[in-house]
Write a structure and sequence with these properties.
358 residues, 8-stranded parallel β-sheet, two-stranded antiparallel ribbon
Length: 358
């Protein structure tokens, strides 16, 4: 069900597994899960939280996550991100296998980003594996890892650690590198979540595009300045998009900063981070959001126009990956998700709202 015939790309989907056998430290892994579930409830709002047992004790899986996007929201395409958080989760935090299963189920509607940890041995070989065996569309890096028992930050501009990975990606025909920023997951050096280190990588590899994931959740002005300095940097709104519902003024300010960059409206990508939140209420909040007039008049904030929203929701991602929108629309026309009806959130497996005290 499209909004005014707008094709929507879900720029980040994840599958989490907080079962003890997948957690390097089960108690700590469970604590991360509990915290993230609280945020999940907050982001989506009433009626959009998946049953806690599915989130924490079972795992939602490819069918549930995929259908939450394609059948239960206005999204038309899924971009699944594997993550390399091996210090906390044995499968890396968002297993590649789920994305591959989604792609097998819905090959015309699913793309996959494969994870690499440059701090671990065999990182360049991992790029080859992702390309040759798994046919990924892009890479995903995380700024912190646990190496030999120590929490270690990753400098994306490090010519010895990261540049060989980027070089191999370029050699293998990959064009995009997604980099987690701004949002902490567990303890680690806060400076690793900043975006400063991307500038050197972007300058050294002008033919790669670096995607700042969670852009605008923090370091808004710094991110906008990076966009000014590096034309091959784009912003992915995963989790940041929840602010359109929970803190719309703050979201409008962040968007205004990005839109003020020359060509900025074409350099922001939609994403919710499903299963971080159900995508539907965030899409609707974003589509309905109007930049407050006082921000426009008193602070010169760039307004979020309907055309900019259409670019952000889908056109920008398609352009980034060289996907022809008309051909994509023709390919998915008439399949099971080409419908005017939206299914119930999480297939009806929604956590009951707490009963208010009398």
């Amino acid at each position: 069900m499209m909004i005014e015939n707008t094709l929507v790309v879900e720029g980040v989907a994840h599958d989490y597994n907080f079962l003890p056998e997948n957690c390097v430290n089960p108690a700590f892994g469970r604590a991360i899960g509990e915290h993230m579930y609280h945020q999940h409830q907050k982001f989506g709002g009433p009626g959009y939280a998946i049953q806690k047992s599915l989130y924490l004790d079972h795992g939602a899986g490819a069918e549930t996550i995929g259908r939450s996007i394609l059948a239960e929201s206005q999204s038309d395409v899924i971009v699944y991100h594997e993550t390399p958080i091996y210090g906390h989760f044995r499968d890396g935090g968002s297993a590649l296998s789920t994305g591959l299963e989604m792609r097998e189920l819905w090959p015309n509607r699913v793309l996959v980003y494969g994870a690499v940890s440059p701090l671990r041995p065999g990182a360049e070989d991992r790029v080859d594996e992702l390309v040759d065996e798994h046919k990924v569309n892009a890479l995903k890096l995380y700024p912190i890892d646990l190496v030999e028992g120590r929490v270690t930050s990753l400098d994306m501009s490090d010519p010895e650690v990261c540049f060989p990975v980027f070089e191999r990606a370029r050699e293998r025909g990959l064009k995009v590198v997604g980099i987690h920023k701004a949002l902490p997951v567990g303890p680690g050096p806060a400076h690793a979540l900043r975006i400063d280190d991307i500038e050197g990588a972007a300058a050294a590899f002008p033919d790669l595009t670096f995607e700042v994931v969670h852009g605008g959740l923090a370091f808004v002005e710094e991110t906008a300045m990076l966009m000014e300095c590096a034309p091959n940097v784009v912003v992915n709104l995963e989790v940041t998009s929840a602010l359109a519902r929970t803190a719309p003024r703050r979201f409008a300010e962040a968007m205004g900063a990005f839109l003020a960059v020359p060509g900025g409206a074409r350099r922001v990508i939609w994403g919710t981070g499903v299963i971080a939140a159900h995508p539907r209420p965030l899409i609707e909040a974003f589509w309905d959001l109007e930049t407050p007039q006082d921000l426009i008049e008193e602070r010169g904030v760039e307004p979020l126009t309907k055309e900019a929203k259409k670019d952000i929701l889908g056109r920008n991602f398609l352009r980034l990956h060289g996907i022809d929108e008309d051909k994509l629309r023709a390919t998915i026309a008439g399949d099971e998700f080409d419908t005017d009806e939206l299914a119930a959130p999480w297939g009806g497996r929604v956590e009951p709202e707490p009963v208010a005290a009398a």
